[in-house]
Write a sequence for this structure.
């Protein structure tokens, strides 16, 4: 992992937290667009761990931002 631009900020209580803005997660196969997000954490290591977890979940979800589920009429009828 290359050097990340992790910024430090303070919350109302005065505690120091860290944020990495615009973290690249991957490219969505359905839309072809880049998926980016902000990652926040208590420590820099926490931010790096969360970023890696997001990337792994994205790959596990077949490179889609959200899990696409097609519901048939039969499923909707059962729910009602």
């Amino acid at each position: 992992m290359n050097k990340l631009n992790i910024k430090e900020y303070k919350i109302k209580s005065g505690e120091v937290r860290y944020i990495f803005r615009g973290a690249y997660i991957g490219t969505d196969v359905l839309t072809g667009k880049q998926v980016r997000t902000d990652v926040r954490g208590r420590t820099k290591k926490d931010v790096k761990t969360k970023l890696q977890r997001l990337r792994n979940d994205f790959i596990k979800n077949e490179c889609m931002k959200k899990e696409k589920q097609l519901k048939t009429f039969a499923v909707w009828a059962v729910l009602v």
